[in-house]
Amino acid sequence: MSTNRLAFLIMPLLLLCSCSKCPDHMPVTRWGKENFYKDFLWKKYTPDTLYREMKFEFNDDARNYMESSLQLGVFKKSGNGNMLPVMENEMSVFVDGNKCVDNIICVAPGTERIRVGFVFNPAAENKVHHWFLKTIDDGGLDRINDMDADTFNSPESSLLDVEVEKKLIMNPLRRGLLIMMTLLLVLLVLWLMVLKLIFFPTFKVGRIILSDPVPYMCQKSLRGSRKLILTKDRPSQGLLNRFFTGKIIYDVNQMWTTDIVIEPRDRNSVRVRIPKEYMADARVMKTHNEYTISNIATGTKTKLKIS
């Protein structure tokens, strides 16, 4: 077999591998990026397989006379520059969907293409990993690409130089919840600081005094509230309603046969919504003036003064 020229060409699909003896000048193949995130609630991290297709061309002698399959390993450089194999606690290698034993890629003679996949393990560092595909067993090949056996089997050479990134990101569920909570907080502040005052304005006047028929007398502070209701039924404003729409003041007395609603208008007046059972001197009542509301059915009259 030593008289035959066993040649083999390795071509990652759409990528270029170098024939240089020195790996420092080898163009880097960007293999892919894996977004890693920590488990949160029911959203668990599922490792992704970063696949690339690799093509191979064997000449006739290589197909017929190779002693065994070509074995390729994945290596990385240590701090002192030595090549160390990438272990399974850092990354696992798959070929055509099958896990490789000890991360060794086996290429049988005559193979035209395989799909090589890298799967990061959680213990791998979150960074860009620089890996090298090197021959572990050349199967008796004399040349790979334009490199002779002494070159591609040397400790410092590699057949392919790849970069694979593992990036730590926020768990998608947690990120979605944070975005939703942020939006809700922004909407809440917008409602409380701006929209609430537009849709539910509050009194700018100070207080209202109601008197008659004797012995009835009532004084209510209006400033900051959004409505005063004169009613015979004891009401109950919920805490959420009060928080989101503003405070409603009630005057409960059996003489109010139908609800009368007093609402803000401007700094010097209020608006009174009079039901058909009542009559009033005005529907807009200004400060420092006295007004009368009369119950048509009972004939009772009540005086109002805004200040």
The poorly predicted ranges are: 1-8, 10-25
Structure class: mainly beta
Shape: rod-shaped
- Cα gyration radius (Å): 42 Å
CATH architecture of the largest domain: Sandwich
**What is the count of DSSP helices, taking H or I runs of 4+ residues?**
4
Number of domains: 2
Distance between the termini: 113 Å
Number of strands: 23
Q: Tell me, what is the CATH class of the largest domain?
A: Mainly Beta
The neighbouring-strand order within the major sheet is 7-6-9-3-1-11-12
Instruction: State the helical fraction.
Output: 10-25%
Overall pLDDT confidence: 86
What is the H/E string? EEEHEEEEEEEEEHEHEEEHEEEEEEE
- CATH fold name of the largest domain: Immunoglobulin-like
Task: Summarize this entry quickly.
This protein has 307 residues and is mainly beta. The chain is 15% helix and 41% strand. The N and C termini lie far apart (113 Å).
Can you give a write-up of this model?
This protein is mainly β. Strand 11 and strand 12 form a beta hairpin. The strands form four sheets. The protein has a seven-stranded mixed β-sheet. Strands 2, 4, 5, 8, 10 and 13 form a six-stranded mixed β-sheet that branches. It has a five-stranded antiparallel β-sheet with strand order 15-14-23-22-20, with no helix packed on it. It folds into two domains: 7-168, Immunoglobulin-like (Sandwich); 207-306. The protein has four helices and 23 strands.
Summarize the SSE layout with pairings.
Layout: E1 7-12, E2 28-36, E3 50-58, H1 60-65, E4 70-77, E5 83-85, E6 91-95, E7 98-99, E8 104-107, E9 113-120, E10 128-137, E11 143-144, E12 147-148, H2 149-152, E13 160-168, H3 172-199, E14 207-211, E15 217-221, E16 227-231, H4 239-245, E17 248-252, E18 260-266, E19 269-273, E20 278-280, E21 284-286, E22 290-295, E23 301-306
Parallel strand pairs: 1-11, 2-13, 16-17
Antiparallel strand pairs: 1-3, 3-9, 4-5, 4-8, 4-10, 6-7, 6-9, 10-13, 11-12, 14-15, 14-23, 16-18, 18-19, 19-21, 20-22, 22-23
